[in-house]
Amino acid sequence: MKTSRTIFIVIIILLIWCTLFSGCVEVTPPSGQNNAQSYGPTSQENANIKNLIKDQNASSSNPNPTSASAQGEISKQPGGTASPEAALPLAENESFVKVTPRDYSHLKQEIPTSYLPYNRPVSTSDRQYVTIYELLNQTFANNASAYAYHLVTPPLYIEMAFYPKMAIDEQEVYKRTGNKEGTIKYTKIRPAQDAWFEMRVYDRDTNEEILREGYGKTYSLTNKTAAIRRSGNFQFDFLGDSISADIVMKIPVNSSTVTTYSEIHELMEEQKTKSELIPPIYLTREDLGEGWQQTGELIHTPRTYSSIFVMQSTGSKLTQEITQYSNISEAETNYAHTKTVNSGETLTPITAGDEGYGFESIRKTSVVFRQGVYLVQLVSYSIPPVSFDELKRLANVVSERITHI
What is the pLDDT tens value at each position of the chain, 405 positions in all? Predict the structure, then answer.
């Protein structure tokens, strides 16, 4: 037994001695490559990836990769080859580098143009906006509307403000505090979940949809501003449910154009206001002749026109008062009332209008006539007064103008 144990120990020692002196055998990596990347990065390599990048940045300042320390490390490897760590490729530097921009001188220069057809403004950075069209308080109840517009001078900005139907949520919560308990009702007002709006813009020439914006569904619950930045013939479709919207179309202009636009707008508003007033059937200073001047307060409304003229050289005065009634019956009633007021005078019929009369005295002359819904009164109360014949002539001037309105 002792001899067998001795033989076993000798065999073990021989095996250990053969292993130490036989050397390692080189094999091919799994993918047939000759570098360590075929195995994938080891945990140690992952931990040192930042160090590798730092080494690469540091070595970029030295074009000779075989420094004295590097040569010492290589010489330690069998056959003078590099270790697996040294064979890893250096990572690329991903830092941003500032460079000179390209030459943009060949691009077309922007030419300042007018956003309104009646003016070409000078170039300026003082940009303002002019509303060219607006749809206010448009209610949508599962319906749609559409508008067409030919945009010549873009951009066109579309501002949309939304007013959804509000819903009321009520919640009852049981609460106990100390020896008190009960139900508390909470009320919350919020936009209705079924409130939505959508604007779709189409190119009418190509039928292409170029823009879509809205409220609710897939859109955020906020007001919106959209822009069209090219010219074209466009159609705007607005659709929605349980919501109202304000839609305002604007174009940017400079301050000089805004001034011009404002002046034109004021002129248009003035003309619009005048169109609602009594038309120009009244007497003017040119109708009275040389020497007459207008004085006192001028009243010009949709129903009444009143003015006073005076001749400075003689002191003569003339007052005209024209009233427009809703219907002929009302005009006839008020014409009859003037006869009652002037019943103390000797009334003389005149030919002006549908019916009329006049009178004269030492200090006062007057003519009154009705034509359609108009009642005209010309009165001269002065020393000397305007002659009765002159008042009849002026009455015929007014009557002629009423005929041609």
Answer: 556 667 767 677 776 665 545 444 444 444 444 443 433 444 444 444 444 444 544 444 444 444 434 344 433 444 444 433 433 333 333 333 333 333 434 333 333 333 333 333 334 445 678 888 888 999 998 888 889 888 888 899 999 999 999 988 888 888 777 777 888 888 888 899 999 999 999 998 998 999 999 999 899 999 999 999 999 989 999 999 999 999 998 888 766 666 776 777 677 777 767 777 889 999 999 999 899 999 988 999 999 999 999 998 888 999 999 999 999 999 999 999 999 999 999 999 999 999 999 999 888 999 999 999 999 999 999 888 999 999 999 999 999 999 998
User: Going by C-beta distance under 8 Å and a sequence separation of 6 or more, which residues neighbour residue 322?
Assistant: 278, 281, 282, 304, 305, 306, 374, 375, 376, 377, 398
Residue at token pair 């400079």 = 254
CATH class of the domain at 285-403: alpha beta
Tell me yes or no: is domain 127-255 CATH 2.60.120.10: no
C-alpha span between 211 and 220 (Å, rounded) = 16
The domain limits of the chain are: 127-255, 285-403
